[in-house]
Specification:
Blueprint: E1 6-10, H1 14-26, E2 30-34, H2 37-43, E3 50-55, H3 63-73, E4 81-85, H4 90-98, E5 103-106, H5 111-143, H6 147-157, H7 162-169, H8 173-187, H9 192-199, H10 208-213
Parallel strand pairs: 1-2, 1-3, 3-4, 4-5
Length: 215
């Protein structure tokens, strides 16, 4: 996964957009400009971290409407939105923050404010993407275990003894030991505490029900 941050700048004012692309590019950011909300929605897969810099007032689809479309897609959870306005619209600013905006910058203000907001947003986004990537890798590793290895791993990580696990699963203690060793070995785990920490933050099919059963 490419985790280099990408700044998506959406503004229908071509001259302003290009000037900000140049400014942010000279500040060290990789920038991709879009002239409308539709261009962004059709032209970006949102797989890379970074941020979205949106003009709040655009024709056809406004920045507020674009933000809502991105929220509905789940894009803004790990991809912060920074709004640009030339109008100092307080009511709009309040609305954007309620909908999860990261910052709200006036176009005619200090350009360093935009640079600082973009930098903070990108740092946040990269960290979020890295966490999500770790979870995806863990999920893939967990899914690669056999069903019995999963049955043993989860309660073992939650402090159950081999004897307790064997009784719950209706299998022998030696069989539990074998599956436990296999699961720990495949995941590179040294003990129950490390397994517990490894499983933290991992949920979904195959995990939740086993956690509940081992309580």
């Amino acid at each position: 996964m490419d985790i280099r941050p990408l700044v998506r700048l959406v503004d229908d004012d071509t001259d302003f957009r290009r000037s900000q692309e140049l400014f942010l590019g000279m500040s060290g950011f990789e920038v991709r400009g879009y002239g409308s909300a539709r261009e962004l929605l059709d032209g970006d897969d949102f797989r890379r971290p970074g941020c979205l810099v949106l003009d709040i007032r655009m024709p056809v689809m406004t920045g507020l409407e674009l933000q809502q479309a991105l929220v509905d897609r789940g894009v803004t959870r790990d991809l912060p939105v920074v709004f640009l306005t030339g109008h100092g619209d307080l009511q709009a600013a309040v609305h954007t923050f309620k909908n999860g905006a990261f910052d709200f910058i006036e176009k005619k203000g200090d350009p360093m404010r935009l640079k600082e907001a973009v930098e903070k947003a990108c740092v946040f986004s990269v960290a979020a993407y890295e966490r999500a990537d770790i979870v995806r890798r863990k999920r893939a590793a967990f899914d690669a275990l056999t069903e019995r290895e999963k049955d043993v791993l989860v309660p073992a990580a939650r402090g159950k003894t081999n004897k307790e696990i064997a009784a719950a699963l209706g299998i022998g203690v030696e069989t539990v030991k074998m599956h436990r060793a296999n699961a720990f070995g495949k995941l590179g785990l040294q003990g129950a505490l490390e397994a517990y920490r490894w499983l933290e933050g991992l949920d979904g099919p195959g995990v939740d029900e086993r956690k509940e059963a081992s309580e």
